[in-house]
């Protein structure tokens, strides 16, 4: 059975600028954004990173499409640990680091659904059903697979920005921490 893919949010969650995000807000941030830096460990060099669109599901999985045989697919099969640095596309810029266990799903129907959803996120509007045959052909031709990422923790960074140079003395930062994905909000 295919997971229920969440639609593109009309309005992405805005991170608070005066405090750390609550666990529920971190999950909402991830559910309502669309791009991330996908990172994974490499044997001999620093981490590999690439900007990708991701699709959240109703069970909090984050789905990423890739071509079979690419580094992302090979590493997930070898290691199974990935990071997704979810990006806010608005200024002041914020991001949320998500740590996840990942597996490869070769279900072609899921690959087509994810690619349809990715195209909708790229253009800002859902693809019409008439586009499905072309997406199916592309998934077949490119041997597309889906990386299923199951978050287990996150790290938030608040948006801090100077709007004028005379605000420099007012600029402050605070320490965030890694929070379990299913953590409850305090209090």
From TrEMBL:
Gene3D superfamilies: Electron Transport, Fmn-binding Protein, Chain A. Residues 23-136 form the Pyridoxamine 5'-phosphate oxidase N-terminal domain. It comes from the Bacteria. InterPro entries: Pyridox_Oxase_N, Split_barrel_FMN-bd. It holds the Pfam family PNPOx_N. This is Pyridoxamine 5'-phosphate oxidase N-terminal domain-containing protein.
């Amino acid at each position: 059975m295919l997971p229920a893919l969440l639609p593109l949010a009309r309005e992405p969650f805005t991170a608070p600028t005066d405090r750390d995000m609550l666990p529920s807000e971190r999950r909402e941030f991830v559910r309502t954004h669309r791009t991330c830096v996908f990172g994974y460990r490499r044997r001999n060099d620093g981490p590999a990173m690439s900007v990708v669109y991701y699709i959240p599901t109703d069970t909090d999985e984050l789905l990423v499409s890739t071509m079979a045989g690419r580094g992302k697919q090979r590493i997930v099969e070898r290691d199974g640990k990935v990071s997704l640095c979810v990006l806010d596309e608005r200024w002041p810029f914020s991001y949320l680091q998500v740590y996840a266990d990942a597996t490869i799903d070769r279900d072609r129907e899921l690959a087509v659904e994810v690619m349809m959803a990715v195209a909708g996120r790229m253009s800002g509007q859902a693809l019409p059903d008439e586009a499905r045959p072309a997406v199916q052909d592309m998934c077949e031709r490119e041997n597309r697979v889906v990386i299923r990422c199951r978050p287990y923790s996150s790290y938030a960074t608040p948006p801090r920005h100077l709007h004028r140079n005379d605000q420099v003395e007012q600029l402050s930062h605070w320490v965030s921490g890694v929070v379990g994905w299913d953590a409850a909000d305090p209090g």
